[in-house]
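User: I'm new to structure prediction. If I give you an amino acid sequence, what do you actually give back? Let's try with this one:
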Amino acid sequence: MEGWGKTSFAAQTVKPVFIETKGETGLETLIDSGRLPEVPHFPESQTWDDLLGAIETLTVEDHPYRTLALDTVNGAERLCHEYVCERDFNNDWGERGFMGYMRGFEVSLAEWRKFLNALDRLRAEKRMAIVALCHTKVKPFKNPEGADYDRYTPDMHDKTWGLTHKWADVVLFGNFEVTLTAVQENKKTGAARGKGAGGNHRMLFTERHASYDAKNRLGLPAEVDMGSNAAEAWANFMAAVKQGREAANG
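Assistant: Good question. You get back a string of structure tokens that encode the predicted 3D arrangement of the chain. For your 250 residues, that looks like this:
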């Protein structure tokens, strides 16, 4: 969710280092404005090779970092698609190239698996946690059991997201708590429309819902209150993780 505080939240993780993808320089803006202290980060990854090279550097070199924050994973997907479009389709994004029969997205999956494998190697060899931030979009959902409806989905191609969702241990959805204060029905169409109130209180959701994707293998509660600032949000999240582990251990 835009403006929720994804970057600030990731900056609270244990000894983080950021990899920013092309155009995703929110971390630097927050540092320059004084809203965050200096947080270690690589130069903005302009290409797919830049991104994979940064991950390789963290994997093979000595460093003090414990968490990789990728800002953002949908930005990484764009770099992947640009690389494949240049390599395999002569930079043709049209129907004769990358978009023809959607084959560019299919071809890109091999590179995406390489990327996920690189993250797995980093996690195994350096014992680093991986936090991948992602923007969302609202997309119609074709409901096989009834009427279609809109839901939040990661701003990624379905096939890329499918691989990423299976790979991740935890998928979290951050949003603002909104209360419907009134519902009016359109007399002509019968459609109901509510009036929202609030929208300033941040929540983290950990289980799949009709409106969004989420999952966790940590025994987290369905909702985690994110408090009033990034530090409090991280503290609340870690408290929920601890509670889930204690419950699992009996």
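You can read the tokens as a compact description of the fold. Here is one thing that stands out. Residues 103-126 form the longest helix (24 residues).
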